[in-house]
Design a protein that fits this description.
88 residues, mainly beta, Tumour Suppressor Smad4, two-stranded antiparallel ribbon, 8 strands
């Protein structure tokens, strides 16, 4: 089953927020997050900032893998998509 895109403003399993995304690609007016984009993490010892470390290599946005539901951050958090838009 296709996994939803993660967008700027979406949450993580640690309670963080996706802070950055593509300047050129958006869904519903919000930038699509990619591998390497910044994420906040409120857990002690994890932040305050971390980055997305996994993505969908079959879907490149600005030459970087798109972040999807369930992908990971460097702190170990999973990304949680707020909507169901996919490209599959």
């Amino acid at each position: 089953m296709p996994r939803a895109y993660v967008l700027v403003g979406d949450r993580t399993s640690h309670g963080g927020i996706v802070l950055a995304g593509s300047p050129a690609t958006s869904r519903d007016g919000r930038a699509v997050a990619r591998l390497g984009d910044a994420v906040s993490c409120p857990r002690k010892g994890h932040g305050p900032r971390t980055s997305i470390v996994s993505g969908d290599a079959s879907l490149l946005i600005d030459g970087r893998p798109a972040a999807r539901e369930g992908d990971r951050c460097a702190c170990g958090a999973r990304l949680l998509a707020s909507q169901a838009t996919t490209s599959d």
